[in-house]
Write a sequence for this structure.
């Protein structure tokens, strides 16, 4: 009969520290995703309709399209600025 080693339970403070590290990694992952999505929204919001295609659009459609682009650009800017604020708060907390 082969005896198997029974894993010892970790002390509570070690478990709490490990959980804290995992939660911090998850938070940084979400932060990075938010920055990427915000930058993508800024990039999409700065797009222009090519001159050749502009002639085929009605003035109302062009106006609506540019309004959507403006909203996307502003939403991306808000997300990027909020992520920058979170980064500054984190840096101040470490100091």
């Amino acid at each position: 009969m082969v005896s198997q080693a029974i894993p010892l339970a970790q002390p509570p403070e070690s478990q709490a520290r490990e959980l804290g590290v995992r939660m911090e990694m998850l938070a940084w992952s979400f932060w990075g995703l938010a920055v990427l999505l915000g930058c993508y929204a800024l990039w999409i919001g700065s797009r222009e309709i090519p001159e050749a295609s502009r002639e085929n659009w009605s003035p109302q459609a062009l106006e609506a399209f540019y309004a959507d682009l403006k909203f996307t650009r502003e939403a991306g800017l808000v997300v990027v600025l909020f992520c920058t604020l979170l980064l500054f708060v984190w840096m101040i907390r470490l100091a």
